[in-house]
Amino acid sequence: MTVAPQKPQAPARPASVTDDLLRRLVARVSSDGSRTPWPLTEVYTGEVLVELPQSTPSDIERAFGEARAAQVRWAATPVKQRLEVFKRAHTLLIDNAHRTADLIQVESGKNRRMAIEETCDPPMVMSHYLKRAEKLLAPTKRGGPVPLVSHSTEIRVPKGVVGIIAPWNFPFATGLSDAIPALMAGNAVVVKPDNKTALSPLFGISLLEEAGLPKGLFQVVCGEGPDVGPTLIDNADYIMFTGSSATGRVIGERAGRNLIGCCLELGGKNPMIVLDDVDAEEWVRGALFGVFGNTGQICMHIERIYLPDSRYDELKAAFVAATESLNIGAAYDFGPELGSLVSPDHMRRVQSHVDDAVAKGATVVTGGKPRPDLGPAFFEPTILEGVTTDMECGVIETFGPVVALHRYRTVEEAIALANDTEYGLNASVWGKDLDRAVAIAQRIEAGNVNVNDALATAFASKGTPSGGVKASGVGARHGDQGLLKYTDVQNLAVLKKQVMGPRPGQEYGDYVGSMLSGLKMMRRLGIR
Ligand code: NAD
């Protein structure tokens, strides 16, 4: 592995991240200041950047109260007018991509390449729903039970105030992108970012307000999940959660008890099946990103690779060589291909997965160690062999730059191994014969399957719903349902003349006879 030219010190903090900006951003958090603030640190140095205010239950209730008041006015604003805000916001978000990436990097430690890619997600989501929202939200007239004299209209009503709970791995994208369709649909939003990574969502919200989003409509509360979660869920009309499967179960239970809907986007243990006709060079490039992109902290990233016996040695050698030449380091420029993990705590979790695997008989092919010389939370890109399901990293999501290589003899065996997991978020199949690869992809139990890519093609296809199955989630983001889930349906039915039931004096049996023949005739005429 070549290491980015060793810097004696961590890189200087980006010039745009001033103390004044940090103070202005955290002032947006709903907090009376009575709780001890959270020391939000710069990952590359471990130094405290700013004290993040924490929200008490009454702060959260106040945020919901303000959001609810703003939502009533927003919902009464015509959809076209609401969408104008997002047209302006689209430009502002792109114009501020570098400043946003600065904040994403200081708080998450990811490399610049990933940070800038992350800034593109909310504008992509906006673009998609700017095209679809008006149509999706327009009242749709449907037929009624009696032709000509009755009709029903499907009316989309905003849920009210949507609570969003976001993780740290894509703080800007998960803090903003899921809020965009909710806001377009006429809702208010209260978001709870992770304490470690609250800055970039706060900045994104300030840009939305600059674009004309009414003040008060998009609130931010901060705190540790178990402290903030219950009050947030109890005040919300819908919950959008992105995070681990363990937390997803807690959130889903509470939402269920409150009889509100929720969308849960959870973890994965994502497999990649490489077929024997694969183009090795293309696959290596795709696998490097799929495994090590965002330092392995992408919910859809690949943690298990199944290689065909006939090409195992060749493919392994190419992948290991490419991994060892990755450029890893701390920099606020586009140099490093790999950045830091989000925190020393998370690095210890990744290390514990590797140590556990080795103790139980796995082999480290490359990597396997922290890199304190690069920063407090750096970990080497790591390839393991001999991983089994009695090892933590054989079954539980590691969420770091660690992958296990497995050998398979038949495609049937590879499919069975890929499906042998409680998760079902993402999978990847590689091969030159597209029909064969697609047929195999359809047999994988996952909400997203990429053919000849690891994850980006599915995630960036904003017109198609993207979610997990099995323990990887409930519901989806993107596609029509990514917006419609934030609405309730009102079935507004109108009867112009009271024609149902027997006419005065008509025998009930005669009425039944005419009703049944009417049903037959409607079926023949294609009237539903
Ligand atoms: P996490 O579940 O620990 O935390 C996610 C968020 O939930 C944080 O804001 C946290 O403060 C909050 N939280 C924690 N406990 C809570 C509780 N009891 N009540 C309310 N909120 C609570 O997850 P994490 O470690 O921050 O994030 C990484 C996980 O997120 C990984 O499992 C990853 O796969 C998953 N993820 C999934 C997707 C997806 O789209 N499926 C996307 C990104 C991340």
Description:
Belongs to the aldehyde dehydrogenase family. With 528 residues, the protein is of the alpha/beta class. The chain has 2 domains: 243 residues, Aldehyde Dehydrogenase, Chain A, domain 1 (3-Layer(aba) Sandwich), CATH 3.40.605.10; 194 residues, Aldehyde Dehydrogenase, Chain A, domain 2 (3-Layer(aba) Sandwich), CATH 3.40.309. Helix content is 41%, strand content 17%. A 7-stranded mixed beta sheet has the order 12-13-14-11-10-15-16, with helices on both faces. A 6-stranded mixed beta sheet has the order 7-6-5-8-9-17. A 3-stranded antiparallel beta sheet has the order 3-4-18, with no helix packed on it. A hairpin with a 6-residue loop joins strand 1 and strand 2. Helix 2 packs parallel to helix 9, helix 3 packs antiparallel against helix 5 and helix 4 runs antiparallel to helix 8. The N and C termini lie far apart (66 Å). The protein binds nicotinamide-adenine-dinucleotide. The site of nicotinamide-adenine-dinucleotide (NAD) has 28 residues, from helix 9 and helix 10.
